[in-house]
Amino acid sequence: MMAEDSHASVPLLEVRDLRAGFQTDQGLLTAVDEVSFVLGAGKMLGLVGESGCGKSVTARALMRLLEQPAGRVLKGEVMLEGRDLLKLPLEAMRQVRGKEVAMIFQEPMTALNPVQRVGRQIMENLLLHEPLDKRGALRRAVELMEWVGIPAPEQRVNEYPHQLSGGMRQRVMIAMALSCGPKVLIADEPTTALDVTVQAQILDLIKRLQKETGMAVILITHDLGVVAETCDEVAVMYAGRIVERGPVEAIFKRPLHPYTKGLMACLPKMDHPPKTPLPVIPGMVPTLRDMPVGCRFAARCPNAHEESVTGWRQPWKECGGGHGVEACVCFAKEVETVGEIGHASEGNRIDEKPIGTDSSGASEPTRAHGGASEGTDSSAPDGEIRQSSRSEKGREE
Amino acid sequence: MSLLSVQGLKVHYPVRGGVFHTTKAVVKAVDGVSFTLEEGETLGLVGESGCGKSTVAKAVVRLLKPTAGQVVFEGHDITKSGAGALRTLRREMQMVFQDPAESLNPRHTIGQILEEPFVIQKLGTRVERGEWVAELLGRVGLPEGAANRYPFEFSGGQRQRIGIARALALRPKMIVCDEPVSALDVSVQAQVLNLLLELQRDSKLAYLFIAHDLSVVQHMSDRVAVMYLGKIVELAPVAALYRDPRHAYTKALLDAIPVPDPAKRRERKLLTGDVPSPINPPEGCAFGHRMKHPRWKESVGMDLTLKEVAPGHWVQPCPCCVG
């Protein structure tokens, strides 16, 4: 169960170019598009975004738990220690769920069975995956409940979910999820339904258990405060796509994408003068039915840019230190500045790679949007970005 | 005279059971709450779930009848008002609810929803009411065409704007906002908060603003009251409360807020346990009891009425939590 520090940087889970959606009356709606990230053992990745941005769909697609019959994983790879979970036979996938990858949900009251004692629910996973008999599983369930900080576990195993408070129910969920020592825990808004004081307890618990077991955690949340306090890395999602990702310090210190900036600005802060207007992100998220091909944030973006940004796919830029961003022309100038200031040792170079191919081995022809986006792979758009950033500079001065 | 003055408000519910349906216990949802609200002012009300925030809100607008205490609005004690007097009163006090999806009738158009207050109050002709609805939609930043559409056609933020427009319809002096933004995303939350601030500036509205997000409350309020288990434990001007909290519960609550800055990560003192049940709450200071404070016993039998420790800064004077 214990983690070895030497393994901390080896990618445990690698998601490449994931696309998932739903077959509906109005045709196929793509909810998650070209999502790629890497998760090292013992790391905590925050997946942030507003409702409908595809955070939960991403998580469910990883587990192959998209709602049936409408849910579809359309493309991509989910590599867990070298195995592609999306290609596993269903039986093998059942062995992975609960044992190697476990999940906890936002509302523990709906995720738990209301007519079964909580002890039995924890035992279910143990009996399925571990060589234990019923008595052994019960004993293990009591130990697990004690481990996650439930007082008087010998009595609690015999109680029903409605007899427990919200915080205790979430602890039961965590005990269930961790019962078989998973390598990856996916926590989908685990504290959203809880009070701040209980939220602090649960986050503290997840961090403690992570330290003890060395598991990796994907924390899905809309709360940037929670991310800042708990995560190592962040991926910001907007309208089904990751627009920016990187180490938590870098993202909070120097957010690059206008959406990330807007998201941080519109939080009421302790030092913001009270009762004065907050900065807002105007407008609304585009609907799944009419997603622009290019920059999906263009309609709400405070920066000025040409119409064309919605017409062709924006390139992904790595700016060193693992900080990457979907570099729309409207702010590409700044991306270069960061490259110069933050990573001067790397010779001011910014790697430009198409989305989804920034990890080795990903195949080139996995791009989706046909001719219009092909051009972005060549060196041409680089020049174009520089050019337009110059003209923008001119506008500002 | 204050716009609203609440004195010793109590809302108790009997828990019945057994063969003869006798009262087994009493839930003291709100147990002796007093505060005032001035014209154009915002009083924030914070606390964990189950502390009685929403019950206070409902008692203030007389959506439920308090067990004891007074709610004086513009000189009238509304706890004693009859149905007719209440109808007149509701022109002056309105409420915005947490979940805009559930507080709007799904079978009514937005026009019908916004017209209803005028119909109930028998105001205006059909044509006039139509004009007023259009004006309301404009004030909350929705297109005029919205009047012919149904609630499901709108996003969460827009629905909350409709809820606010409905509350504004009769030009009230006070609006009770019960968790108005907690169901909304952050970017939309900022839009709705800005709208509430703008409306307050324009028409000198008073807000009783209930939320569990302490940074939202800080942004919106002039004064803040902290509730714990049916009682107010601290009430102070917003700056004083956040800079210099006196009660241990306020301190714990403020300490639990996640700060969106990874550079400020810190070891927190975690509050243990959950809010105790308001059925037969402990004697004396309930928070001291939860923390198993050695001096909790001293608070039993003490007079725990709020004491003024600085101008406008009121704290429950229990020896275990204030020191």
Structural summary, described in words:
The complex is a heterodimer of chains A (397) and B (323). By secondary structure, chain A is α/β, with parallel strands linked by helices. Chain A is built from 14 helices and 13 strands. Chain A has helices spanning 55-62, 90-96, 108-111, 118-129, 134-147, 153-156, 166-178, 196-213, 224-230, 248-253, 258-265, 332-342, 370-374, 380-396, and strands at residues 11-24, 27-40, 44-48, 71-80, 83-84, 101-104, 184-188, 216-221, 233-238, 241-247, 316-318, 324-326, 351-353. In chain A, the strands form 2 sheets. In chain A, strands 6-7-8-3-9-10-12-11-13 form a 9-stranded mixed beta sheet, with helices on both faces. In chain A, strands 2-1-4-5 form a 4-stranded antiparallel beta sheet. In chain A, helix 4 crosses helix 5 (134-147), helix 4 (118-129) packs parallel to helix 7 (166-178) and helix 7 runs parallel beside helix 8 (196-213). The longest helix of chain A is centred in the middle third of the chain and has 18 residues, at 196-213. In chain A, 47% of the residues are buried. The longest helix of chain B is centred in the middle third of the chain and has 18 residues, at 186-203. Chain B is globular, with a radius of gyration of 21 Å. At the A-B interface, helix 7, helix 8, helix 9, helix 10 and helix 11 of A face helix 7, helix 8, helix 9 and helix 10 of B.
